[in-house]
Structures are given as C-alpha cells and as structure tokens.
Amino acid sequence: MKTKKIFFYIVVFFIFTYFRIYSFSLAESANIKNKYNITKEDILYIDKNLKNIDNRKFLKMLNFNTKLSESYKPKMLKQVPEKYTKDEKKVLIDYKVYEDLIKMIKAAKNEDINLKVISGYRSYLYQKKLYKKMCDKYDANYAKKYIAKPGYSQHQTGKAVDFNSLIIDQKNKKIFQWLKENAYKFGFSLSYPKDKNETSYQYEPWHYLHVGKDVSDIIHNIFGGNQKKFLLFINEYINQ
Fold it and tell me: pTM of the entire structure?
C-alpha cells in the first residue's frame, strides 16, 4: 500500500511539472508573438517552413551580435562565372548559394535586368583592412554606419552578395527595385533596408544575404522584408 502511495505522488509530481513547463512555454510563445506582432497563423507558417531547414545553427550565427572567429571560413567556396561579375573580377561565394544566384541572374536577364556581382565572400582579415581604411579616411563613428567590423560581416559567411553598384542613382534604381521585388523568390533577403533602424547600418539596396527559399519566404511574408527583425525573433523562438 505504501509503495502505491509513493508511486501516486511521483506521478502527480511529474504531471504537475509537465503542466508548469507547458504553461511557461505557452506564456513565452505568447510574449514572443506580442513582441514581434505576429499571429498564431504566422507561427504555424514559420514552423512549417523551418521544418525544411537543415542548418538552424546558421540562422543563430547570423545574429548581428554574434562574432565570427578570425579563422572562420565556409567549407566550400565556388567562383561566380566572370560573365556574371562586374569587370569580370574574381568573386567567390558559398557553394550552396551558387545555384540560386545563377537562377536569379538569368531570371533578371529575361526581364532586361542585367545583374552583376561586385562582392561575395570576404575573409576576416580582408574585412579588417576595409574597416581600418574607412576609419583612417573618416573616423570610427562614421565607419560603423557603412561597413561591418571584422567578424561581424555577412560577407564572411560566403552567403552575402553585393550587386552592380554601391551608388544609388537613376541607372541602378531599376535594378535595385527588381531585386527588392524578386530576390526572395530565389532565397535572398535584403539585409539593410530603407527606413529600418534595427540594423544600425545605412540603407544598402545592393546587399543581399542568401538564407534559402523557406526562410526568405518567412522574412518577406511575415516580417515585411525586415531581415534583422526575423533574426532577432528566430533566436528567441528557437531557444524558448
């Protein structure tokens, strides 16, 4: 009889603990939904798309507060064909980005948009040189608005691509508008959009990050193209 009583209390304890954890999880989910102004249907859509993602660690790595080590380098880089780069310069990207990039360039060409890649993978040391050069020319406060510190550049992942020009003029507006409307269809997301203060960087309509089709759909459809808002959300959501 005593054994049965002990067993009963153990079962009650585990049931109570389970519902406490479950209730806490629901509360956390509700807090996250309210914080990012998303609905239950949005969460279901996000969960559905996230099931197809192999490497969630990559999404955590993209957190703007996460520093990449000096030795970090993508496992395999692939050269973009020179006919697709500006001035036929050598540009390397993560091999997983290659297929979607070429598809997007060809799709743009069919609509008389001539996309040219001007930058892809950058090493930690190369980024360090760029940042120092900007600091020397201006100052650190100015530099941090226009270029990432070494270790914080999306280019070091090999998944970031700059297109055509770093100048916003009439010639490039049509190109940047096409990218804004279509890049997500190929797994790319605009990293530093206009009128979005979360990134602390200036507007860069040429800078896109390849996050994969499932994630780019989430960013486009649920977060209004705000990549950083999504990355902040997903880091909380995965860890809850």
Answer: 0.82
